[in-house]
Amino acid sequence: MLKVEDIDVFYGIVPTLHQVCLEVEGGETVCLLGPNGAGKTTTVKTIIGLLKPRAGRIWFNGTDITGLPPHRTIGLGISLAPEGRLLFPDMAVEENLELGASTPGARSQKQSAMEWVYSLFPALRARRGQAAGTLSGGEQQMVAIGRALMARPRLLILDEPSLGLSPLLVQELFRILKKLNEEGVSILLVEQNVVQALRISQRAYILESGKIVMRGSSAELRSSDTVRKSYLGI
Hints:
Elements: E1 2-11, E2 14-24, E3 29-33, H1 40-48, E4 55-60, E5 63-64, H2 70-76, E6 78-81, H3 93-98, H4 104-108, H5 110-120, H6 122-126, H7 137-149, E7 155-159, H8 167-182, E8 186-190, H9 194-200, E9 203-208, E10 211-217, H10 218-223, H11 225-230
Parallel strand pairs: 3-8, 3-9, 6-7, 7-8
Antiparallel strand pairs: 1-2, 1-4, 4-5, 9-10
């Protein structure tokens, strides 16, 4: 489904990613792990088209999407729930959700997508007319993910979705992500909560200083001494 081949990304003259390769197959949840500043957000911004790689290619379902603008990648079936949520705080919950149905295909099935989002996040239905900025952090994250789902993506990319949430909300969030994957949505999950991410994913990559330093099945990485010491504190 998604294939990232040897991408190099620079901010100005500063190299940020070096020969990064990763893949997400249809029906998979794949997580991208690593410390702050490793280049995880740069990777997803490059996939979605907010940044253009200096070298390498990105393929989605056999189509070369390298450097395509975000509205084109979204139209092909990729959605991003960004780090920090980036909601419009003075707009109602439902208005924020509707912004996710921006492509012609998504607009034609906006109502069914809205019902799908409300079935995943029942708390949002009761707050559909409430300003998004007045919601709790967990509810705002639900809106951010719901907005990404309004495009009915084939691939959902989530950038640090559990950041700043309470342990109970984190558990609920990962339960929903697991349910989404079981319903057929492929997921690329960028996350610092290594334990939960490896629990719901099939495969994982570890990014450090702009380079992929480990890859393998989630079970393999959970049992790796390096991962256990560096990321799980064991």
